[in-house]
Amino acid sequence: xxxxxxxxxxxxxxxxxxxxxxxxxxxxxxxxxxxxxxxxxxxxxxxxxxxxxxxxxxxxxxxxxxxxxxxxxxxxxxxxxxxxxxxxxxxxxxxxxxxxxxxxxxxxxxxxxxxxxxxxxxxxxxxxxxxxxxxxxxxxxxxxxxxxxxxxxxxxxxxxxxxxxxxxxxxxxxxxxxxxxxxxxxxxxxxxxxxxxxxxx
Length: 201
Known about the structure:
- The chain has one domain (25-198).
- The protein is 18% helix and 39% strand.
- The protein has four helices and eleven strands, in the order H-E-E-E-E-E-H-E-E-E-E-E-H-E-H.
- It has helices at residues 2-15, 80-84, 163-174, 193-198; strands at 26-32, 38-40, 51-56, 62-68, 71-77, 97-99, 102-108, 111-127, 133-143, 150-156, 186-188.
- The longest helix has 14 residues, at 2-15.
């Protein structure tokens, strides 16, 4: 009976295309974009404080972090020049902002198809005791090559206690088929102040 059940299960997996040889496990890997783990590009500008650095990613990709006027962009490519030409390198959030230094890579097998990063968006209507704007937190899902690199989804981290799970679901479900420049960035889960600030125009 056990042999029959095992053989039947193996046959079912083979027929459904889910045998081990063909299955692609989707999971997460992590890298750092902390300055100590990256290569600085040139010298920081004394005029406006702009900086740029390149960080090692996964599967031969690099992460480009550029900051100008207290606003960051994060892009990905096979090299710095390629990353700088992607849509993600040209899409700024209007309020002051910064990204955290942990990148979560969603990958099918060894090939990443999306990355998830936590961002802080400054809220000018909510000053702290020193008069500086408090920040609101959200997760950004970005699609990766092949094809253009751009934002796919935003998840408000305060409004959604399960924001990490929602961001992974968005990456898995939407990133690979997302059409940069044609499809609208998706707001996943409950809306919140971080997403409201990030989508200001």
